[in-house]
Amino acid sequence: MSLSRSVYVIAALGGLVASRIGLAGVAAAAPAAVPQTANASPPQAPRDGDEDVRWAWPSAGAVKASFDDAKVKGLVLGGKAGDPVLAAADGRVVYAGSGLRGYGNLVILKHNTTYLTAYAHNQTLLVKEDQNVKRGQKIAEMGSTDADSVQLHFEIRRQGKPIDPAKLLPPR
To answer: Alpha helices of the chain — where are they, by DSSP H?
Structure first.
């Protein structure tokens, strides 16, 4: 993984989203600032409707750990190795790899200028960067990479900040 890709992934999950993700109003983490030119476009503001994402559960597994801003930045869902991991909403794959320690095989989807989701600890990744995916599409298989047991660590981030996925996902 290149240094710029590593900075990008760490920034995306650290709450400071790099410019490639394009979330407005969030500071970008970069090794050095790039001067703006007269022809540079301003950052995009969230479009109307960016709050209107149709969410779905990324796994049928039971919730093993709930959101806790201090400890668990998402939900931990249980399951068996190989269980399907599904896209929680339509989006584009902005990262698929294992370059961020502690997340194992990881997929990050960008849904719009406001939301992205992260799916960690997979045994197999079934998507590639820049691929468009649909809500409910199988994007990975559950595993235990960088985890003590088979699980899916699932995060929803709003403008780079982790939020409780249970508040957005439909009731089961």
So the answer is: 3-13
